[in-house]
Design goal:
The complex is a heterodimer.
Chain A (H helix, E strand, L loop, with lengths): L3 H12 L5
Chain B lengths: L3 H7 L1 H5 L2 H13 L3 H14 L6 H16 L3 H5 L2 H12 L9 H13 L1 H5 L3 H6 L1
Classes of the chains: A mainly alpha, B mainly alpha.
Chain lengths: 20, 130
């Protein structure tokens, strides 16, 4: 199971803009 | 006229939609010790895209609440008490909704637009990049 911190980090990263 | 830099000065939204802009703004906020506000803003966007049927979504909502709202960090300090109560109650009742952090995100965004964003546009980090 992912830790809470990992889940949060994953959530933040998913919303960060990606290189075009 | 449509250079990245022209877009950055247009609005906070345009700045955060650009990868270089978002990373530079993040560096600036780290230095100002308020990077939590930006991470929270992105966490809200990420949360909105999550599938409510996924059990992970409740865990993420709890993680956001614990990290940014429950304690006395900069995000929590900038939120209205009613907004925090609403989120706390939603989590307590396990009533998870895609828009449950929207009001909080708007409040944080307004503070960022009025303060950090304006400061960023006159900061040496920004000017050196330009």
């Amino acid at each position: 199971i992912d830790s809470e911190d990992d889940l949060l980090q994953e959530c933040i990263s998913s919303a960060m803009p990606k290189k075009k | 006229p449509d250079s990245p830099l022209a877009r950055w000065t247009k609005s906070l939204h345009s700045l955060l939609g650009d990868q270089d802009g978002a990373y530079l703004f993040r560096t600036f906020l780290e230095r100002e010790q308020c990077v939590d506000t930006l991470d929270f803003w992105f966490a809200c966007n990420g949360f909105r895209q999550m599938n409510l049927k996924d059990t992970k979504t409740l865990r993420v909502a709890k993680a956001i609440y614990k990290r940014y709202i429950e304690n006395n960090c900069i995000v929590s300090k900038q939120l209205k008490p009613a907004t925090k109560t609403y989120i706390r109650d939603s989590i307590k009742k396990q009533q998870i909704d895609s828009i449950m952090f929207d009001q909080a995100q708007t409040e944080i965004q307004t503070v960022m637009e009025e303060n950090a964003y304006q400061m960023f546009l006159t900061s040496d980090i920004y000017l050196e990049y330009v």
